Amino acid sequence: MKPEQYLQPVNEASPRISIQGCEGSFHQMAAQQYFGKNVAIIPCMTFKEVVDIASNETLSEGGIMAIENSIAGSILPNYNLLRKSELKVIGEITLKIEQHLMVNPGVKLEDIHEVHSHPMALQQCLKFLDAQNWKLVESEDTAASARSVHKYKSKHIAAIGSKLAAEIFELDIIAPNIHTLKNNYTRFLILQPKEKIEKITDANKASITFHTNHSMGILAKVLTRIAEFNINLCKLQSYPIAQKDFAYGFHADLEFETKESFYAMLEGIKPLTEEVNIIGIYKKGNTWNL
Known about the structure:
Elements: E1 16-20, H1 26-35, E2 40-44, H2 47-54, E3 62-69, E4 73-74, H3 76-84, E5 87-96, E6 100-103, E7 114-117, H4 119-124, H5 126-130, E8 135-138, H6 142-151, E9 157-161, H7 163-168, E10 172-175, E11 185-193, E12 205-211, H8 218-228, E13 232-240, E14 248-255, H9 259-269, E15 275-282, E16 287-288
Parallel strand pairs: 1-2, 1-3, 5-16, 7-8, 7-9
Antiparallel strand pairs: 3-4, 3-11, 5-11, 6-9, 6-10, 12-14, 12-15, 13-14
Pathway: Amino-acid biosynthesis; L-phenylalanine biosynthesis; phenylpyruvate from prephenate: step 1/1
Pfam family, one: PDT
GO cellular component, one term: cytoplasm
């Protein structure tokens, strides 16, 4: 898309937020839970595009990006995109992922020949799908599959996606909650350019990156120092450092009671690290079961 295609009137009640996927995606559901139903989404094909649009103040007020899933684990490319960008984390939200089988009105189970969806969604529903004799077709997005079923008025094709996708594209949910593992959650980060960030007075969580030298036990010393300040390390993710053979940095998510203890901890680990960067200071997010 060209930049002018993203331009929309600025409305404080309807912030423009870049998301991965089209209307009806789980990213849109997360955006609505965080910003409200009036949020104006900017659909993007890739996460890189999400970051690029979120970084441009003339095009958006920020972006939202999935960072980890309770079953699939960390989305490593997104950690790299975040680290290399000028964006900061201003919030988070965790969404329960519920997959539904949807069809055009009047279509019955016995009419279905094919099921279309994102590869991950198909994998999440294999126990249900294996009991059927349907052709499984991978697509780039769950919501895009729902849109296609609606657009072409398919009588023999179903899609797997969110409840929101079914509502937007006027499809019937013929089999709800077909995902095999019911405790499936995705965590999303809310991103803004650092120039737009306002102080969050009730912040109790932060994301940082750091790296150390290769001295014996140095990482253990850093983690021990963090614990000494009564900071809860709730996520530690390693990543390779470019131009250095087998050298790694770390992304850490930290929960704290006071920002004073967080800043004191940062000073405490500086002598043990070669570099420390704050990715965001924000309020711990809620978990939504929709």
